[in-house]
Amino acid sequence: MKNSVVSLQGVHKYYGELEPRLHVLKGIDLNVAEGEFVSIAGTSGSGKSTLLNLLGCLDDTSKGTYLLNGKDVSTLSDDQLSQIRNEDIGFIFQSFNLIPQLTVFENVQVPLLYGARSISDCGDLCMQVIDSVGLIPRLEHRPSQLSGGECQRVAIARALINDPALLLADEPTGNLDTSTGDEVLALIEDLHRQGRSVVMITHDPDVASRAERRLLLTDGVIVDAEAA
Amino acid sequence: MISTKHLELVRLGLRSLLGYPMRTVLTMLGVVFGVGSVIAMLALGAGAERELLREIGRLGIQNIIINSVKPEESTDSSSRANWINSYGITFKDHRRIVATVPGIKRALPVHVSKRTVWSGSKRVEGTLYAVMPEHLEMFQLNTSVGRNLSHLDDEKLARVCVIRSGLLKELSIFEDPVGLPLNIGNETFHVVGVLEDDAFLGYARKALSVDAKSSEIYVPYNSILKRHGTRSITRRSGSQEATDVELNQVVVSVEDLDQVLITARVIDSLLDRSHPEKDYELVVPLEVLAQRQKTQKVFNLALVAIASISLLVGGIGIANIMLATVTERTKEIGVRRALGARRHHIMAQFLTETTTISTIGGTVGVLVGIGLVQVLTLFTGWTSVITLFSVLLSLSISMAVGIISGIYPARRAAGLDPITALRHE
């Protein structure tokens, strides 16, 4: 059996200290094996964003354990979580979240600024990932000079720069038209075929169906979409 | 390895600043003017200090100047049995000082009298200084034309004089003045030299009791003393007054600089015994200089403190803009946090930006300050000195302003919750 990249066991998340607490995630068990492409669909209010924040190590669990790539991340400090986000997670956001004043090259380079590696050794690496998303001609452009699809490809390149254990995509096609969205999804599928582990969160059943395994988040619990 | 990363952070910080050029420039202006005025104030302060040193230093810091002072006129007319008004330092005092006060290099006597000077039909009032030749040397009274007074002149009781060029103008003399006869009082003196245009200024003039209104005429000491004695008669409308001051001034040079103040005290107590009416005063340039410098330092400090207020305002300006920037860039902060930036990275980013603003502003401010000083010097004639110290001080203060004004905004940025920041639109 392959190693688990993500392993959630009995994870609860609630907000507020006093009863009645807002109980968002109600006992989630989730395993994502290495190289797997999993989609988690759910209507708004189902707890998708909360789950995404947990998976992305932006937030901690109220109860239960979260093992990312074998490491228990539920008890880490702020700095340690930052390091995990930097090294083990590649974020792809709905609204791309590129830094407007930086060029394509510099945007892709940002995670390197916060990691342990020297950036001067990584010029080739940056070029390589930018090449892999086909944006070499756009190297010196600013996000405002790019189309939505190009922006998302820059974001994907940025997510890949530190060779993360997990790619975490949050509605990656939400701000794109259907055909551009398809291109981006095709790129993600490519990455999956190259052995990347991907968790994609979306409300769109069509997008969700591109994944290898589809899950459904309903009212704070996860069910298998195929079974549902 | 770390340094390239830091350089990159600085470069990207600059990039952010260049993203809003107008705002950055306006924010910088506060620091520019703050540093500019600090530089200007320091330069003017240092200039005033140098001027002071030049003015008082010219008196010679190893010297003690003893001036005869006319005592307050006694209203009791019976005490003025003699119609000759006699006061001041006497030859005896001079001899006693030379003989008894230790550590004295020399004590030069000076006799001053007001005389009418004629040249042809032109007439001016002049002040005659009967001095030893060393006197001119000591106070750097150098001739630009002709020669200075010599010992030979003194021994031969020669009727020669060294004059200020101002006197020539007053007497409308335009030909070569050397050898020119001047009728001073009832005698004819020949001009042997004209002094450089380097008049005594401010305090030095007062200390040497040089009259600003009339030109100085220097003659050999003995030529006057041996020929005329010390009495002078001043005619006023209807009455006349005779004064007899043996010596108007004695300039004592002390061998050892450390002994100047003690020697001054010794001389004072010596003179005090024979002059109960206090008809003399002691001027100790060293002491005056120290006092003036102390006052000037306090004044300089006050000037700089006032100038620093504008620097403070500049700092507040940076903090204000940075706070706005933090709000505006909340999303970017969230993104950076998601990509692995730790709190201290965010701190560093904003501090880099504020420090960059203030340091560039400070550098421009130094140039503005130097320019301001040049303009002020040009239009007011004040002396100014721009020291390396003042430049380095201003630059370090401006850097410190950047860091201090950046701390609060940077802490706020670093304290943002990544999830909230990411969701911020």
Structure description:
The complex is a heterodimer of chains A (228) and B (425). Chain A has a single domain (35-59, 77-224), classed as Rossmann fold. Chain A is built from seven helices and ten strands. Chain A has helices spanning 48-55, 78-88, 104-113, 123-132, 148-160, 178-193, 205-208; strands spanning 4-15, 22-33, 37-41, 63-68, 71-72, 89-92, 166-170, 197-202, 213-218, 221-224. In chain A, the strands form two sheets. In chain A, strands 6-7-8-3-9-10 form a six-stranded mixed sheet, sandwiched between helices. In chain A, helix 3 (104-113) packs parallel to helix 5, helix 4 crosses helix 5 and helix 5 runs parallel beside helix 6 (178-193). The longest helix of chain A has 16 residues, at 178-193. The radius of gyration of chain A is 17 Å and the shape is globular. The two termini of chain A are 26 Å apart. Chain B folds into two domains: 2-55 and 291-423, no CATH class; 70-278, no CATH class. Chain B is built from 14 helices and 13 strands. Chain B is elongated. By secondary structure, chain B is α+β, with helices and mostly antiparallel strands. In chain B, the strands form two sheets. In chain B, strands 3-4-9-6-8-7 form a six-stranded mixed beta barrel. Mean pLDDT of chain B is 86; it is low at 77-81. The chains are: A alpha/beta (228), B alpha+beta (425). The A-B interface holds A 53, 56, 58-59, 78-79, 82-83, 85-87, 91, 93, 97, 99-102, 106, 109-111, 113-115, 118-120, 158, 162 and B 1, 4-5, 8-9, 12, 15-16, 18-19, 331-332, 334-343, 345, 418-419, 422.
Write the layout of secondary structure elements.
The complex is a heterodimer of chains A (228) and B (425).
Chain A: E1 4-15, E2 22-33, E3 37-41, H1 48-55, E4 63-68, E5 71-72, H2 78-88, E6 89-92, H3 104-113, H4 123-132, H5 148-160, E7 166-170, H6 178-193, E8 197-202, H7 205-208, E9 213-218, E10 221-224
Parallel strand pairs in A: 3-8, 3-9, 6-7, 7-8
Antiparallel strand pairs in A: 1-2, 1-4, 4-5, 9-10
Helix pairs in contact in A: 3-5, 4-5, 5-6
Chain B: H1 2-19, H2 21-57, E1 63-68, E2 84-86, H3 91-100, E3 104-119, E4 122-131, H4 133-138, E5 143-146, H5 151-155, E6 160-163, H6 165-170, E7 181-184, E8 187-195, H7 202-207, E9 215-220, H8 221-228, E10 231-236, E11 239-244, E12 249-254, H9 260-274, E13 280-283, H10 285-328, H11 330-338, H12 343-380, H13 388-415, H14 418-423
Parallel strand pairs in B: 2-11, 4-9, 6-8
Antiparallel strand pairs in B: 1-12, 1-13, 3-4, 3-7, 3-12, 5-8, 6-9, 7-8, 10-11
Helix pairs in contact in B: 1-12, 2-10, 2-12, 2-13, 10-12, 10-13, 12-13
